[in-house]
Amino acid sequence: MASSHPAFELVRDEKVAEINSQAQLFRHKKTGAEVLSLVNEDENKVFGITFKTPPEDSTGIAHILEHSVLCGSRKYPVKKPFVELLKGSMHTFLNAMTFPDKTAYPVASANLKDFYNLVDVYLDAVFFPLLTEDTFEQEGWHYELENAEAPLVYKGVVFNEMKGVFSSPDSVMHDQTQRALYPDTTYGKSSGGDPKDIPALTYEQFKRFHQKFYHPSNARVVFAGDDAPEKRLAILDEVFSQFEAAPVDAEVKLQPRWNAPRQVSGTYAGTVDPEKRRDGMVSVNWMLDPPEGRAETLSHGILSYLLAGNSAAPLRKKLTESGIGESMLGGGISTWLRQPMAGFGLKGIDPADAEKVEKLVLDTLAELAETGFSEEQREAALNTFEFHLREQNTGGQPRGMNYMFTALGAWLHGGDPLAPLTFEAALEDLKQKAGQGHFEREIRRLFLDNPHRVTSKIEADPEQGAREAKAEEDKLAAVRARMDDAAIKATEERTARLRALQEEVDRPEDLAKIPTLTLGDLDRDIRTVPTDESDLAGARLLHHDLPTLGILYLDLGFDLKVLSADLLPYLPLFGRALLQTGTSKEDFVSLTQRIGRTTGGISQHRSLATKLDDSGTAAWFFLSGKSVPAKFGEMLEIMSDVLLDARLDNRERIRQMALEEKAGFEARMIPAGNSIVDTRLKAGLTEASWVAEQSGGVSYLQFLRDLVKRIDTDWSSVEARFRQIRNTLFNRSRMVVNLTADGSLLADAKSSLGSFVSGLPQRDATEQDWGFAVAPKSEGLVIPAQVNYVGKGANLKALGYNASAASAVVLRFLNTTYLWDKVRVQGGAYGGSSRFDLSSGNFAFLSYRDPNLLKTLDVYDGAAKALRAGIGESDLTRSIIGVIGDADRPEFVDAKGYSAMWRILTGTTDDIRQQRRNEILGASNADFLALAEAIEAIRDKGHVVVLGGEAAIKAANDQRPGLMEISKVM
Ligand SMILES: [Zn+2]
């Protein structure tokens, strides 16, 4: 099946059994472009083109270019071809990413025609982008001057995005550490861009960077999937042959090694609690040598797992049990840099304790090198890796994407792209060496005997935010002072011109050039999942007969409606406690190892939704696990131990988990600010959303802070709550058992499942009234951040909207046109969108890393008017295609079984799904008008939640008194 093309030379042609693919490596004769063509049966086809783009400074040049090439190209001269694809293709992946040494452009689709469309637009974008000065200014940075009296300000999408990134202490820490570890190479720069340095970048430098690096001679292309391999080469040659060879030196230089460790410290904008300081972070980091081959990268992965892969891993355990900090930082070796970095540390410490942490890390590693890992530890780690390598479960991500990034690790630096895709030989080798002291020797070689080490520390500086804002103001004022009248006028005009350009719409004939499917290319029918339902010892058994390649996927669901409302905030910790406190038979280290040796993993989570028939809330707790058939019985024994015998009296472990949970939530505050606003906004609207906030929103954070204290002062009442949950929740008469496995595995599984379920308690249980009452509230939640997350919403059903699935088409259009333009392009936020849940009727507008506040609310208030303007035929078609694409996104087999169960638990029958699909396919202008009317009502009747900086929130309240009730969250 060797494919060929005269323009390409075939360099390698091998079967890679581990990924069930024929791998062919080609070299484009004229330009030297390299192509990895993976032929397999995966319908979820992937294409990706990657360039080496090592930056020489921290102006964010590679990152700004990544944004800009997607803003119009030779064949597709519209403002945002990327957004057109986002709106109207069946993509299963569509994005671009900047790394410290490369920029990658991957796309994926399960529809062949759609796939070729995506490849075509992406190839034209990277090689023939328009890259106008306007695009550079909009995506990168520019001066904005409203009028001659107004202050001069910086604007730009990446400028603002990076301000948001640097608002997160974790990002500040990571940036500081990486810079310190590789001071003499490209890794010593901030590839995303440091907001202080971004304004030094010029348009000329930007253009030159593209010319130099975005060239076939510097390209690595990956194709993977079931599309025709010959056609891949033909598509590429058509583009590559337009270039002459231009070899470019983009090699990432090696950082020279040091002979002695170093220290680095810094600060971030944050608050300090003078009573008990918890604002410090410290980690001990090493630079490693480039790995030699697959055996070494696999060994790095397994060693990281052995040291810190779960809470029972000795180094993680030592750090978290030390009481010095709140949770672990880093977690081992990350192999995506040419010389990998490794780091272990703690966050939530008193900065004065930094040296203690350093000593603890080094002492623990020395101890482990001496005493070694136990056989149980090694076996658990090796089995866990082997299970995941064979399963190749990439979750929602197309598998081919993983192949691409895995191959690039070595390929980018002149190594073999195929070796990283294999694992059998390397795994066999490690299994041999593991018992002979291999990992212990590696601890010495990689860490203890390696002087290229940095101890990196940061702490909060309460003045930093104001100081940086002042420095930026001063810098701008100085620029402003140097401007003469002509320059001021020119900047004003430029500001107006840029805004006018942003308002301009593309010509329909240009938009029509973007290739698209037609409605006729779409399946009219929903995809269904086989489900057999039966009774199993009083529980409800659902079985999905799907090809699972010999693995059994099991979800055990328990109805949360039997719990009283005051118990709900305890659930996340309760779930963790089941798996991480041990049982009366064994401690949690031994239990964790038993899970690792026996299964492909056991996990827990909760799911919440408003039921479709308005009969209330579906609220479930799940314990899920997977195993091979031979280990299924043993997995059930573990599950039974965990459900009935977890050590809920293990105060020490529960205290550590509460601290970790709190630190984890606080760290998410900035990167996930929009979802925190979303959760808070809806908490007063429906019962399911209220529970979600109680057990995962700002209320939950407050609960955790209080709980951490109560564990010390009032443990017996805390323990009593945990017991009460277990004694009420685990009840087989309110239980669903969901099994996804080949039909041939069912008979055996069913008999062991039957005795397992019979061993669980059976109780009378009544549904509790959680006392939820609709009570929307407008709030300003203050955190130390330079950007805002602005939300506004309401329940549309309550406002009289007759919910139709066609609303998804309207939202897709709204999100990719009006909100994209106004909130992101013109407003300078990283993102802005709306969300609507068909079942509950909850609607929210949300912005992400937003420099504005009131202006964004005004944009939301104008949305109805934008919808009333109606939609053209081609936009309508594209939006329908996009929504169907989302609905048909391929799921991994375990997710198929889980989704089918969740639809049953929420009352979403196949008839309803088909009806919804029909509504989507038949979406029309009338749907736009109907939703416009509902959204119109949000303007006056909706409520507002903002998470952001204190100054911004106060200023907004001054302008619109009574807009928000202000409270400090961090
Ligand atoms: Zn970006």
From TrEMBL:
SMART domains: M16C_associated (SM01264). Residues 458-707 form the Peptidase M16C associated domain. GO terms for molecular function: metal ion binding; metalloendopeptidase activity. GO terms for biological process: protein processing. InterPro entries: Metalloenz_LuxS/M16, Pept_M16_N, Peptidase_M16_C, Peptidase_M16C_assoc, PreP_C. This is Peptidase M16. Coiled coil: none annotated. It comes from the Bacteria.
